[in-house]
Design a protein that fits this description.
The chain has 4 helices and 4 strands, in the order ββββαααα. By secondary structure, the protein is an alpha+beta fold.
């Protein structure tokens, strides 16, 4: 894995490897500064989209089914590898908190 702000290329056994601004490793996006801002932004986008889709159909279900779907699809977005990306900026923390307040 090569990461950096400027383009760096490495030639290993005839294979050219170029550096990237961010990489996805085991489902976690890491950028060149070893921050997880892009990963947290993507999580917030996915959770928000799932919440709005759920809000459209929630009127047709009873409360227990709504809770089950909420825990399975929306809260699970934030439960994958939280210790890795928990050191994020204050702005991203505010974004996560506003999504959690909608639940």
């Amino acid at each position: 894995m090569l990461s950096g702000n400027n383009k760096v290329t490495a030639n290993i056994d005839g294979n050219v490897i170029e550096s990237e601004e961010h990489q996805v490793l085991l489902g976690v996006t890491i950028d060149s500064n070893l921050t997880f801002d892009k990963h947290v932004n993507d999580l917030c986008k996915k959770a928000s989209a799932k919440f709005y889709a759920f809000a459209r159909i929630a009127g047709y279900m009873d409360l227990t089914k709504c809770r089950m779907i909420m825990n399975a699809f929306i809260k699970s977005q934030f439960s994958y590898c939280p210790l890795i990306w928990m050191f994020h900026s204050r702005a991203l923390n505010h974004k996560i908190n506003t999504i959690h307040e909608r639940f």
